[in-house]
From TrEMBL, chains A, B:
This is Cathecol 1,2-dioxygenase. The keyword Metal-binding applies. Keywords: Dioxygenase, Iron, Metal-binding, Oxidoreductase. InterPro entries: 1_2-HQD/HQD, Catechol_dOase_N, Intradiol_dOase_C, Intradiol_dOase_core, Intradiol_RC_Dioxygenase. It comes from the Eukaryota. Belongs to the intradiol ring-cleavage dioxygenase family. Residues 32-105 form the Catechol dioxygenase N-terminal domain. Residues 128-292 form the Intradiol ring-cleavage dioxygenases domain. Gene3D superfamilies: Aromatic compound dioxygenase (2.60.130.10).
């Protein structure tokens, strides 16, 4: 091995046509095969994008300034790059690739930018929304595995907007978490709590991503929904949400999260349930049976899908830590 | 026309396979055909990138955090996104696409992140570097058009690093511009000044882009060079640089800027020149004849190249403000 200077590719007189292969070559000197593959594909696509659009210097500078503004809009409680990924459909795509769901299990959807770790553990039955303007809503759900057996002690993250369409983290003067909780499923796989009926709301539209939505003639709204995240060792991590059927924006969600299987109808609580859960008869009810897939089944399906996709690309690949890399042996 | 809600595509049950077309469809509602085409290609490439890498949620989050850090590293005098574009070869590619040069004219190269508008006008003959540690260098150049005629009154931006490899803007306590100037060519197309011999230096490597270079096993160095930018109405804007032949990193420039036609050899000033330009005999000399292409010729070549590239893509396109967009009529 000579010095790095001698070993690297010769990079001179690069043109529109030869630059991509040479940038790939100089990026191929690291030791992590997965990082090298990711960079190889990133460089190919970024360069193809510039060639196919004949990107002008002025447009390039507009892009540089846009990405800079997106980065600078990010704070501890706001992630504008996730929002950008959301409105371009990348977030849902990555979720679909990374967490494939066998037919029998609950589908996943976008995490969104409002999940927070600043949240309290709550027991079943807790009131998790203290918004006086919200319409009360009882939520009673169960968690099962793909064999139909209840799954207990699942860690469940729940978060929703308030009746004005804002999450707690969007208020400058907030003094703690609200409209969110972490709870655990009981022995029967059931978890339940008291919240408010979700309402539609816009994603934060006062930053560069909101401006882009405007230029594209798109609205910033999401249909009414409540977020859920499920974690238990041995089960595939499930990020999902329940959407109210018939909600405005059901068909035009700004972040592409709605799935038929995740649509629910609000029902009124009957006399028996009202007594059991200590709510007024007629209170709105959200009820859903979530089905978790095992980590093993999810991994197998993800790896099978990955290799099938690689075969379609016509490239000789192998798995490295469960993810595809070129098979150069 | 109904409400926006009714007009937009129906976006539900999106999958790995159908999400791209649907995101493209909802992005296609704006009025600017060029923005729509750019977004269409961006979405295609971002989604293809995720599909071809089977991008994991964790890798996606690493990417989100990386881009956020790049944005947050930017200040008034530091542009980390331009640096990222530079080290991925995008900057040189865009420059090549936007400013094609007929064979007879001077090639362009990367602008780099250190051009500054905080610069003084200087007359010909000015000393533009006040670095006491720099090796003095006389620079005498001419500017001609492609017919060989001198071009006078061209606005010329010149900037270089000091002898320690830093630009003025990289010093926290700087009290004004140094190693940079704006001057004008004389009636004979000549401009000249006194500077220092350029030295190799690393691009700023203390941020996220420097960290990426490290992970890729790449060094951060550029070979010795001096930047030039030429502007005159009627002539294509020329961003270029002269590189010292034989400089370390000549073949491994971290930002891919070196071109054979831009390599120069330092020569010693002879007795006659020493007298004429009032420098010591034997002082290092940089001399180069720059050739500017007319705006008209550059535009024609750019548009011809664009349409040829579009034809290769097999897509029916037309020019809109000189840039390709789909021909949907």
């Amino acid at each position: 091995m000579g010095s790095p200077e001698e070993d690297t590719p010769r990079l001179k007189d690069l043109t529109i046509d030869n630059i991509t292969d040479n940038v790939k070559a100089i990026n191929d000197q690291g030791s992590d095969p997965r990082l090298k593959y990711i960079l190889e594909r990133a460089v190919q696509h970024i360069h193809d994008f510039a060639r196919e659009t004949r990107l002008s210097h002025q447009e390039w500078m507009t892009g540089i300034q846009f990405l800079t503004a997106v980065g600078q809009k990010c704070t501890d409680v706001r992630q504008e790059f996730i929002l950008l990924s959301d409105i371009l459909g990348l977030s849902l795509l990555v979720e679909s690739i990374d967490h494939p769901k066998p037919a029998a299990s609950t589908e996943g959807t976008v995490l969104g930018p409002f999940h927070s770790h600043d949240v309290h553990d709550e027991p079943n039955g807790a009131v998790i929304s203290h918004d006086p303007d919200g319409e009360p809503c009882l939520v009673v759900c169960s968690i099962k595995d793909t064999d139909g057996k209840p799954v207990d002690d699942v860690k469940i993250d729940i978060w929703e907007a308030d009746s004005h369409g804002f999450y707690d983290v969007q208020y400058a003067g907030r003094d703690g978490p609200d409209q969110r909780a972490v709870m655990r499923s009981g022995k029967d796989g059931v978890f339940w709590f008291k919240a408010i009926v979700p309402v539609p709301y816009p994603v934060p539209a006062d930053g560069p991503v909101g401006k882009l939505l405007g230029l594209l003639g798109r609205h910033a709204y999401r249909p009414s929904h409540m977020h859920f995240m499920f974690e238990k060792p041995g089960y595939d991590h499930l990020i999902t949400a329940l959407y109210l059927r018939g909600s405005k924006y059901e068909h035009t969600d700004a972040v592409f999260g709605v799935k038929e299987s995740l649509l629910i109808d609000l029902k009124p609580v009957d006399a028996e349930m009202a007594k059991k859960y200590d709510v007024k008869e007629g209170t709105k009810l959200i009820s859903y049976d979530f089905v978790l897939v095992s980590e093993e089944d999810s991994r197998k399906l993800r790896e099978k899908n990955a290799m099938a996709a690689m075969e379609k690309l016509g490239r000789r690949m192998k798995l490295y830590k469960g993810l595809p890399v070129p098979d150069v042996d």
